[in-house]
Write a sequence for this structure.
């Protein structure tokens, strides 16, 4: 299931190939996206690829939220104004003498770890309407669920729609109505995240019949994992 989820949900930016999926066949090469590539027609690789990669990602998108784990050098090839998605870009920093700083070698490793973590572990919650966040599911029942998220000073409150997706369970369900009942601080036990973690819990709110059917099937699978 991990391979299926990765192949269907992970895209890799490439200076040579443009856009790759995890199982695509490729030849060994070394061509960074920021490499100088001046010709009569193009100034660099960004100019060469133009809108092609952005258009290819739009074709692959299954939702209107994109988790960006690419470096700044590579993500510059994406035209954010043309991308049919809202972008979540995690930033990984190291605590150096009381100040959080981005360290290239550790940041690169953390992006890879988070990609692997998303593919191999757990179920994720995407909040789109108001809070524009992604969280990790920690418990679920027919009545509702709870998840952890990185807080930026605000609490989650009110009614909104969420998406649930999982690589482990090959599961994706969108636009689930959710009503917040609680939101409080939680100890941070995630190795690649520096920041305040909060736990949000609530109940499902006016599910339609098809959503209930898919959700209850998933809950049974989740509890038997």
């Amino acid at each position: 299931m991990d391979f299926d989820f990765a192949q269907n949900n992970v895209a890799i930016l490439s200076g040579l190939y443009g856009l790759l999926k995890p199982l695509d066949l490729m030849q060994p090469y070394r061509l960074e996206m920021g490499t100088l590539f001046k010709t009569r027609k193009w100034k660099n690789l960004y100019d060469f690829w133009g809108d092609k990669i952005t258009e290819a990602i739009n074709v692959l998108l299954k939702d209107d939220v994109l988790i960006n784990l690419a470096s700044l050098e590579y993500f510059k090839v994406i035209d954010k104004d043309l991308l049919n998605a809202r972008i979540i870009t995690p930033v990984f920093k190291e605590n150096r003498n009381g100040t959080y700083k981005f360290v290239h070698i550790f940041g690169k490793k953390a992006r890879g770890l988070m990609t692997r973590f998303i593919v191999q572990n757990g179920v994720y919650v995407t909040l789109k309407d108001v809070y524009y966040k992604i969280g990790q599911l920690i418990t679920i029942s027919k009545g509702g669920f709870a998840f952890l998220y990185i807080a930026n000073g605000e609490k989650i409150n009110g009614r909104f729609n969420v998406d649930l997706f999982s690589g482990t369970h090959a599961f994706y369900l969108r636009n689930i109505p959710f009503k917040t009942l609680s939101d409080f601080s939680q100890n941070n036990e995630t190795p690649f995240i520096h920041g305040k973690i909060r736990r949000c819990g609530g109940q499902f709110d006016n599910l339609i019949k098809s959503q209930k059917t898919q959700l209850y099937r998933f809950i049974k699978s989740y509890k038997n994992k």
In short: The chain has two domains: 2-89, 123-223. The chain has a mean pLDDT of 84.
